[in-house]
Amino acid sequence: MKRLRIYLDTSVIGGCFDVEFAEWSNLVIRAVRAGRFRALLSAVTAAEVELAPSRIRELHAELLSGGAELLHVTAETLELQESYQRHRVLGPRFRNDMLHIAVATVARADVLVSWNFKHIVRFDRIRRFNAVNLDLGYGQLAIYSPREVIPDEEALA
What CATH number is associated with residue 143? Predict the structure, then answer.
C-alpha cells in the first residue's frame, strides 16, 4: 500500500506540546515515525519554527533527520500563492497560510494537515483554494485536521 505523503504545517508540530491538540498531533507524529505516513515539511515551516520554543524546533529537526521530505518555496509556489491572493481566498496578511497551501499543492501532497481552523481547515476556504488549483491545472488538495487523518483503531489503542 502506498504511504501517504502528508504536509504538516507548523500548527501540527507545535500542537504536540499544546494541551488541546497534543493527543492527535502526537498520534500523527507517531504514525510518521512508524513509517505509515511520509512527512512533508517546507521552508515555510522551517522559518516559522525558528521563532518557536526549543522543543518544537527539536521535533522539527527530528522529523527532517528521520526522512521527512523538505519542500522549497519556488517561483511556481509563489505564483500560486499570488493567485490565491488575487482570488481573495485570504487577505495579504495571511501570506504564509497561502504559501503552505501552495507548496503542498505544487508538491502534490496527498493531504495537508493543520489545526488552523480559521484560515485553512474550513470548508469554504478549502473549496476556494481548490477552485484556484483546478483552474490553474493542479489537482485538488485534501485538507484535514490531525484528528481526521488518524484511523479510529489507532485512536482507540
Answer: 3.40.50.1010
